[in-house]
Amino acid sequence: MIVLKVNGFATAAGCQLVATCDMIVCSDTSKFSTPGGLVTKVVPATDLDAEVEKIVDKIKHKSRSVITLGKQFFYKQIDLSLFEAYKLGSDVM
C-alpha cells in the first residue's frame, strides 16, 4: 500500500507519480496539471502531516494479506457495472 502526501504542485512526472499510488492525501493549496480524480482526500495544509500519519497508522496495523486482497478486488471490479462489482464483492467476502 503506497500512501502519498502532496503539498504543492504536481505536474508532468509529479502527476504520473501520483497516479501510481494507492492513496493520495493533498493539502487544499496543492495544484495538479489534470482536471481531477487523482486524490483520495483533501485537507487543510496545516493538517496534512497529521492526516497522513493517521491514515498510515490505521493501515500499518492491518494484515498484509487482507490489504493485498482488498487491492486485488479493487482492480478487478474497477471496470465492472455496479451490479457486477457487488456480486464480485460478495463472492470475495
UniProtKB/TrEMBL annotation:
GO biological process: fatty acid metabolic process
Domain of life of the source: Eukaryota
Keyword Lipid metabolism: yes
InterPro entries: ClpP/crotonase-like_dom_sf, Enoyl-CoA_hydra/iso, Enoyl-CoA_hydra_C, Mitochondrial_ECH-domain
Keywords tagged on the record: Fatty acid metabolism, Lipid metabolism, Mitochondrion, Transit peptide
Primary location group: mitochondrion
Gene3D superfamilies xrefs: 2-enoyl-CoA Hydratase, Chain A, domain 1, Lyase 2-enoyl-coa Hydratase, Chain A, domain 2
Record SUPFAM superfamilies: ClpP/crotonase (SSF52096)
Any Gene Ontology CC annotation: mitochondrion
Subcellular location, record wording: Mitochondrion
GO molecular function, one term: hydro-lyase activity
Record keyword Lipid metabolism present: yes
Function: May play a role in fatty acid biosynthesis and insulin sensitivity.
Protein name: Enoyl-CoA hydratase domain-containing protein 3, mitochondrial
